[in-house]
Amino acid sequence: MKDQVQRISHAIFENDIRLPILDITHPLFNASIDEQAYHLNCLKSARSIESLKKMPGFIRNIFVRMSNVDKSYLSGMRTLLYKLGPDLSRGIPLGFRDKWAIKQTSFMGLRIRLRDLCRLQSKLLENQLKRFPERNLCFFNIAGGAATDSINTLILIQESDPKLLKGRKIEINICDIDTYGPAFAKRCIDVLKQPGERFHGLDITLNIIPYDWSQSETLLQLSLERSGWIQLCSSEGGLFEYGSDSDIMDNLNHFFTHSPADARVTGSFIFDRAHVNPGYLGFTEFIGVQIRYLGLEGLQRILTQTSWVLEDFHEIETIYTLFTLKKA
Fold first, then answer.
1. In what order do the strands lie in the sheet with 308-316?
2. What angle do CA 203, 208, 210 make, to 5 degrees?
3. pTM exceeding the 0.90 threshold for the entire prediction
4. Residues forming a β-bridge with 315
5. How many CA atoms lie within 13 A of 231 on its CB side?
6. Could you tell me which residues are beta bridge partners of residue 210?
7. Can you spell out the DSSP letters for 111-168?
8. Quick one: average pLDDT of 78-98?
C-alpha cells in the first residue's frame, strides 16, 4: 500500500514528453507547501519589489523574462508546471527560466490555492452526491486549462467515500480557448481510468469545449443538456481574475438559466488594490500581468446584477479569495 501511495502516474504531452499527473494527495505535493515560508515570503516581497525597481533597466528586463509571463498571463501548462512544484517536476526537461521559477516560494501560492479549492469543492459535492445517489455529476470548468481542480476534486471525493462516484456518469467539460492544457487533461483522464489507476471502473468523460468567456451563450446549451445532473461551474485563476464585470455577469447569468436549483459556482479572485498584499501587487505590475484586483466588494457588486449569492469564502494571505456561489 505504501508503494501505491508513493507512485506517480504520468501522461504524455506534446513531443512525447512524459509529465506527472498532478495529485494533491501525493506526499511530494504536500512537501512542496510550507505555509510558514509562504507567509514570510509574502511579508518581505514588498521590500524585494522595491529593490528590483531600483536596479538597472537591463537587469529588470531579465527578471521579467525569467517570470515566464505569456501574453500578460501564465499559460495553462506553465501554471500546471508551477503547481507540480520542484519535486514532482523533477525529471521533466525544462529550460533555465522554468527551473528557476518553479523553485520560487512565491509560486507556492498556486499550490495552496489549488489544494484549498479542491477541498472546498469536494466537501460541497460530497453532500450533494450523498443526497442524490441517482443523479450524474457534471463539471463546467471555465478557462480550465489542465483541469487540475476538477480532477483533484474527484480524487478527494474518491479517497473520502469511493461509493459516491460509482454507478453514475461523471463529466468534466473544459471551456477554454487554449488547446494544450485541455488536451493534456484528456490524456490524464485516459491514464487514470486504466486498470490499477485511481479512476479505474468509473464512468468519467472529459470534453474539450472551445470557449471564449466573452461569448458565454455556450453555457446555456451545455447546462440545459445536463439539467438533471449535479452541476458545478468553476474557474480557478481564470474568469474572476481576468474577466471584465460584464464577462463575469454574463457567464453567471447564462449558467443560472438552465442549471438545477442546487447548482454551485466556485472559483478564485484577487483582493482589491486597497487590501491586496503589496508585494503581490508590485510583482504583478512589475512583470506586466494584466490581472484584476476584484476584491470581495467587487464580486458582491457584480452579484447584485445576477441571481447568485455568496455562500462561502476563504482567504489566502491577502492575495487569493476562494468562494462558493449558490442560487438566491
1. 203-210, 169-176, 137-142, 230-235, 264-270, 320-327, 308-316
2. 155
3. yes
4. 321
5. 26
6. 176
7. HHHHHHHHHHHHHHHHHHHHH-TTS-EEEEEET-TT-HHHHHHHHHHHHH-GGGTTTS
8. 90
